[in-house]
């Protein structure tokens, strides 16, 4: 696939799930990336509660860790790939294809955040939810 086709593939997924494809994003402290945003936050996968650090019930699926691309942002489980080059876009596109195979939706969850953390990042985020049953368990 060409770069343009990869971008189109990601954009179609983003449109379906009402999120935004960001081709000139930043993760952490100024690390360039491409990814999928909802509001100011990258879409999470396998999210954890901000206070207990336990996985959010109904959203954890080990298969999501297994399909992360090599350049996925590694300090937070979110749909972002480091870099803005063609390779990063290709990796995000292939990640999207694997998410489609798992029949995911992107849904809201309560973060558990309170106080200043709630003001900074909000009390809800969006995360990937796998709908295809795990047949390996």
Give a nutshell description of this structure.
The chain is an alpha+beta fold. The protein has 4 helices and 6 strands.
What does this protein look like?
With 137 residues, the chain is of the alpha+beta class. It has one domain. Helix content is 31%, strand content 26%. The chain is built from four helices and six strands; from the N terminus they run αβββαβαβαβ. The chain has helices spanning 3-17, 62-66, 86-101, 115-121, and strands at 20-27, 31-38, 41-42, 80-82, 104-110, 124-130. The strands form two sheets. Strands 1, 2, 3 and 4 form a four-stranded antiparallel beta sheet that branches. α1 (3-17) packs across α3 (86-101). The longest helix is centred in the C-terminal third of the chain and has 16 residues, at 86-101. It is globular. 31% of the residues are buried.
Descriptive key words:
single chain; two-stranded antiparallel sheet; alpha+beta
């Amino acid at each position: 696939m060409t770069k343009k086709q990869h971008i189109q593939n990601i954009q179609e997924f983003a449109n379906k799930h009402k999120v935004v494809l960001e081709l000139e994003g930043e993760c952490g402290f100024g690390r360039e990336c491409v990814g999928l945003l909802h509001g100011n936050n990258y879409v999470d996968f396998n999210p954890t509660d901000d206070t207990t650090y336990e996985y959010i019930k109904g959203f954890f699926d080990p298969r999501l860790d297994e399909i992360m691309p090599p350049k996925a942002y590694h300090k937070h489980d979110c749909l972002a790939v480091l870099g803005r080059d063609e390779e990063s876009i290709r990796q995000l596109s292939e990640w999207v294809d694997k998410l489609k195979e798992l029949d995911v939706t992107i849904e809201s969850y309560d973060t558990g955040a309170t106080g200043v953390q709630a003001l900074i990042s909000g009390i809800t985020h969006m995360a990937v939810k796998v709908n295809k049953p795990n047949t390996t368990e």
